[in-house]
Each structure stands twice: as C-alpha cells, then as structure tokens.
Amino acid sequence: MSKILVIDDERSIRNTMKDILGFEGYTVDLAENGPEGLELVKANEYDTIFCDIKMPEMDGIEVLQRIMEMRSDATVVMISGHGNIDTAVDSIKKGAYDFIEKPLDLNRLLITIRNASDKTNLVQETKVLKQKVDKQYEIVGESEAISRVIDMTDRVAPTEARVLITGSNGTGKELVARRLHENSARVQGPFVEVNCAAIPSELIESELFGHEKGAFTSANKQRKGKFEQANGGTLFLDEIGDMSLSAQAKVLRALQENIISRVGGDKQIKVDVRVVAATNKNLQEEIEKGNFREDLYHRISVILIHVPALEERKEDIPLLAEHFNKQICNEYGQQPKEITEDAILELKNKKWTGNIREFRNVIERLIILCDKVITDEDVRMYGGN
After folding, report:
1. Which pLDDT score, from 0 to 100, does residue 29 have?
2. Which top-level group of life is the source organism from (predicted)?
3. Are 156 and 246 in contact (CB under 8 A)?
4. CA nearest to 30, candidates 21, 348, 339, 240
5. What is the pLDDT of residue 131?
C-alpha cells in the first residue's frame, strides 16, 4: 500500500489525515513543519506528499521547491485554508501535482491519492522502460578502437555539429547516433530514423518532407515528413549514400536554410533539426562517380566518426557475449547461460562478416539451442560459417 507524508503545522489536521488514511490502509508519516518534512523526504520514498502552504519557519511553496530539487518526480499535493486560484496555479507551475482546499473533503482526498498513485506508477514504469531502452542501445566494449568512438561521440554530442557515421553493415552505427542524441541538449525532443536504402527513390522525398493532399495519386490526405516529425530533436539519415540526387538537393536546402516544403506544396516550413547521417559506402568514391553531391557531403560531415568492424575489436567479444547473453535471456524470461572460456575462444576465432548484428544472432541461436552451458562444441555446431 502507498506510503504518504503529511506536512502541516496544525496537529488536528495531521492527526485527522493519519487516522483517515491509516483506516484506508495507507502508511502515514507526519511532519509539523517544512524542515522536518524535508528531512523525512531525504530519508524515505513517498508515493504522495501532502504539504500545507501557510506554515511558520518555511512556507509550503518553499518546501515544494526544495522537494522538487531533491526529487523532481515526487508527487506533491498542496493543501491550504487560505487558497485562491493564483495560489493553486503558482503551486502547479512549481511542480505540485494538485491543490486541495481546507476543510478537506474525504472523497476528494482519496480520489487525489488514487490518481497520484497512478501517476507515480506510470513514472516508475517509464523509468524501467527507459532503462531497458538505454540498455538495448548501449555501446559495449573496452577495446581501444571502440573507446575512441565512445570518446568522440561524447565530445561531440553536446554540440549542434552535424555528424557522419561510417562503417560496415552491422557495426552499430545506429547506437552511435542514439548516443549522440541521448547526450545532447535535444534529448527531450524526438529521435527520428529514416533508412534511405529501404525507401524507393520515388517515395523518399515524400518520406522526408511530407506531402500535401492530392500531391500524387495515393495522397489522400496531408502528411508530415520526417523533418517535421524530428523538429526540436535529431533526424538520423541511415544509409544516406543510397539517397537519390533529387532528394539530396532538397536535403541540402533544408540544412542550409532550415526550411522545407512538402511535396505538392509551396508553403515554406521552418524546422529545427540536428541531422546525423550514416553510410556503409565510401562517399568520396560516390562523389567521383556522380552519385553523391559534394556540397551535401561537406554539410553533413562536420564531424566524422568511423565505427570499427568486429574483426578490429575482437578483444570485446567476451563483454559482448556476456551483454547479449543477459539481454536475450532477460527477453526470454530465463536465467543467463554459462559460456565457457573455450566457447569464447571459438567465438574469437570466427570471422564476423556481419559484425555485431551477426554476433548477436549467433548468441541468440546458442541460447535457444543449448542447455545451461554453452561450449566450444556448441559454437562450432551452431555458430555458422
């Protein structure tokens, strides 16, 4: 059951709330002033905190601000017998979940606690999901090759510099792009990914810039493109080397002027987007062949980050095996399997042409097909090539 803190200088209010909420099955702590309440907040986790506004020593608004500094996701409900609309609005602006006037109505009190508990549960679930997502996109490794990538990524992330990520298929270019976003000032904005190689050339412009209703036969309604969807955040253009020349010209204009136009429309739309691009091609060679615009290349490659192939960082294989073992077994709801040292050696001896993507697939295959222990014989049998 929820744990609740009541901060109020009126003993009768404190005791009444403790009796009522205790009868409903809640655990209730009491504080008779702001400093005492803050000490309890430091030492305990509360699902809901009720705080009076008019108190000696420290008023409720200051207590609220201090609580928000300590625990920004705390659920604080302000209570007052002298409240008005301005006070309520001020409380909400400073982070309060709700505002209740005295004398307290029992039904209102219980409904507020139930709603606050739902909010607290959602916050906790969001934290757990974010941790899972962060783990999913973690760059794993301690080799010199991958350490250089991580260091460069973390140096560049807080800036607005455009980044071109190069490397073979399956090396983890998307992980670098996501790390750039997560460590940037745009982290609260969207991260929008476009695989330029997976979209037919005749549709790429509509995908990137959107289209107006009637722009072409199947355009039944107006549609926002990826540039608009990524506004305020990061747009990841994966496999940009496969983009058509006409789309490249429009992307160049968008990067130069921060303005786009939807297909079939003349309206100029302002966008605020950080572009991160990736490719497995040698764009210098593509420029010489006439397949890629040199001016666009210089726009997107302020910073170049090359992600090494797994063949260049085989010393990371033990860490990668442990990481994917835990991750995949967690997805399957089972305990991680033991991987013997001989199995690790066998994994190191293999050629990983598909890089990290292929490596993860092999670990997943071994987890599915092997018993509690994965041996070198298992790797030879199920590891492919």
Report:
1. 94
2. Bacteria
3. no
4. 21
5. 52
Q: Using CA atoms, how far apart are residues 192 and 226, in angstroms rounded to an integer? A: 7
Query: CA 260 to CA 271: how far, in whole Å?
Result: 7
Provide DSSP, 120-177.
HHHHHHHHHHHHHHHHHT-----SHHHHHHHHHHHHHTTS---EEEE--TTS-HHHHH
- Write out residues in the chain with pLDDT < 70, as ranges: 1, 83-84, 123-136, 385
Report the pLDDT value the prediction gives residue 385, as an integer from 0 to 100.
Answer: 65
User: In order of start, what are the domains of the chain with their CATH numbers?
Assistant: 3-133 (3.40.50.2300), 137-308 (3.40.50.300), 311-382 (1.10.8.60)
Extract the tokens encoding 4: 């609740």
| pLDDT tens figures, 162-207 | 999 999 999 999 999 999 999 999 999 999 999 999 888 878 888 9
| DSSP letters spanning 45-79 | --SEEEEESS-SSS-HHHHHHHHHHH-TT--EEEE
Strand 48-52 relative to strand 259-260, pairing: unpaired
